[in-house]
Amino acid sequence: MAETVSKTELKKVSFRESEEYLIATNHYMNPDMIEYDNHRGRHSVVRYRAIEKALTEAKDSISMNDIKAILEQKVPNGVFCPYYDDGLGTLHSMAFDLSNKKVEVCLGMPESHKWQEVFFDESVGNSIVTENVINEYADDPGTFWRVMPPGSMDAGIG
Question: Is residue 92 within 8 Å of residue 103, measured between CB atoms?
Fold first, then answer.
């Protein structure tokens, strides 16, 4: 997993490996990138923890359906977020199956759209897609949008 920072005079790439799995949301996780972690949203940590919990519970047999279930569930139990007006709305979800050389893609809101298979070795062409979304707002915006200290993973959830 590569994490990058690009500022006026600074460009840095940091790599992270894992024997089990790699998780990424919208904050730095590599220890050497924490100094650049100046806007760690609680929502990002909540989504990270939801992925971590689901993968831990799946143990040794994480299936495409397990991955898609995480992507389809709304925060705080999954990563799907319908807060479009506030700038955090899921536009598409993707689950990669490298063994079978394909990606399953869901355009728009996963609760109302189907997953489509795209195979790496097949041409798909280009198209413009327009999707309707239904906006929602966080139940407790002050908590949901809170900015956390650099490196913090304590989102105050079980």
Answer: no
